[in-house]
Amino acid sequence: MNSNTTCTLGEFLVATQSEFPYAKGELSALLSSIRLAGKVVNREINKAGIADILGDAGAENIQGEAQMKLDVYADETFTKALRNRGEVCGLASEEHEDFIAFQDNIHANATYVVLMDPLDGSSNIDVNVSVGTIFSIYRRITPVGTPVQLEDFLQPGSKQVAAGYIVYGSSTMLVFTTGHGVNGFTLDPSIGVFILSHPNMQCPPYGNIYSINEGNYVHFPEGVKKYIKYCQELDTASNRPYTSRYIGSLVSDFHRNLIKGGVYIYPTGTKSPKGKLRLLYECNPLAFLIEQAGGKASNGLQRIMDIKPESLHERAPYFVGSTQMVEEAEEFMRKYPS
Ligand code: AHG
Ligand code: MN
Ligand code: MN
After folding, report:
1. From the alpha carbon of 121, which atom of ligand 1 is closest?
2. Measured between alpha carbons, how far is residue 145 from residues 84, 108, 110 in Å?
3. Ligand 1 mean position, distance from CA 15 (Å)
4. Residue among 163, 176, 126, 169 nearest 284 (CA)
5. What is the mean pLDDT of the chain?
6. Residue 63: nearest ligand to its CA?
7. 9-198 to CATH, choices 3.30.70.1660, 3.40.630.30, 3.30.540.10, 3.40.50.620
8. Is the CB of 213 within 6 Å of ligand 1?
9. Which pLDDT does position 129 carry in this prediction?
């Protein structure tokens, strides 16, 4: 692709379709559905301050967390966009206990399942801080034409065929991978088109940002406590002390560290014994992206994408970002097992 010319996401999808010889354009069409839903959700988020859409929807999601109105809106919008086309046979969302099987005639030949966190960082909506959407795409493993099964969703992250996120920030970006590197597109809101702004994104192997909710310090495992202290020590040769940055929207924290270099950690703790982040909706898609950008994602001891999921909403401790920094943190986890 000529880097001197403007390339829209639509053009990019057409131009790169040949990377999937067996896919006959379905994956591109699926990503187009996500692009469309992303624009609709973006419009709604942009007017969140003026529309009567702020605040609690009055329900709790299945993990007992307060559900914001925009969580519901984003969930419905992405579900509708994916259901309206024929590429997807099933969807699992952070907002629903069970997966949804799409079984209309148009889905009869569908080969893909999608897992998503429709609105990530929802506690930040009311205060005008960036939020996001995360998606993960797999080929089904049960026979085409039969109803999709739980096993189609419980595949290790290494089986993903595509993954990405939308960050609704000071500008809105869609960043995705199909296993051929990572590309970022920025929405031009005046014409409603995503433009390739960050081709072939690479995560620096080393950075100077560490991102963790230090308010939970007393609950952390020993290795993480020791690693935090290491981040704060003076050592000019290794750029320490690192700077601390934590937004509280995983997508936004991840996006910043992907570009600038850094490590994001959400460990286990006495408050969240299995970690807080969801393996299927949050950890795996961002792990696919970071590896494609040259970075690393682990649970502190093991590659995230090698974990065989046992349930849809399972959680995992998460260490993600610049390769050398994740490895540094892993060393502490091995040295101080708790
Ligand atoms: P969600 O809004 O989808 O429930 O995700 C919230 C997650 C993630 O975005 C963020 O990094 C993390 O929760 C923040 O948790 P703490 O407030 O415990 O730091
Ligand atoms: Mn989330
Ligand atoms: Mn969410």
Report:
1. 2
2. 17, 5, 7
3. 36
4. 163
5. 94
6. 1
7. 3.30.540.10
8. yes
9. 94
H-type alpha helices, the chain: 9-16, 26-46, 69-83, 150-153, 222-232, 250-260, 284-292, 323-335
CATH architecture group of domain 209-335: 3-Layer(aba) Sandwich (3.40)
Phi-psi region of 8 (alpha: psi -120 to 50; beta: other; left: phi over 0): beta
Can you tell me which atom of ligand 1 is nearest the CA of 61? 4
Confidence of residue 66 (pLDDT cuts 50, 70, 90): low
Domain locations in the chain as residue ranges: 9-198, 209-335
User: Can you state the angle between helices 9-16 and 26-46, rounded to 10 degrees?
Assistant: 160
**b/e per residue 201-210 (b: at least 16 CB within 10 A):** bebbebbbbb
Q: Which residue, judged by its Cα, is nearest atom 11 of ligand 1?
A: 250
Task: Take atom 18 of ligand 1 and give the residue whose Cα is closest.
Answer: 213
**What is the CA(118)–ligand 3 centre distance, in A?**
6
Nearest CA to ligand 1 atom 16: 248
- Model's pTM, two decimal places? 0.95
Whether pLDDT at 65 is above 90: no
Query: What is the structure's pLDDT at 47?
Result: 83
CA of 125 to the centre of ligand 3 (A): 11
Q: Is the CB of 124 under 6 A from ligand 1?
A: no
Nearest C-alpha to atom 8 of ligand 1 is from which residue?
250
More confident residue, 51 or 110: 110
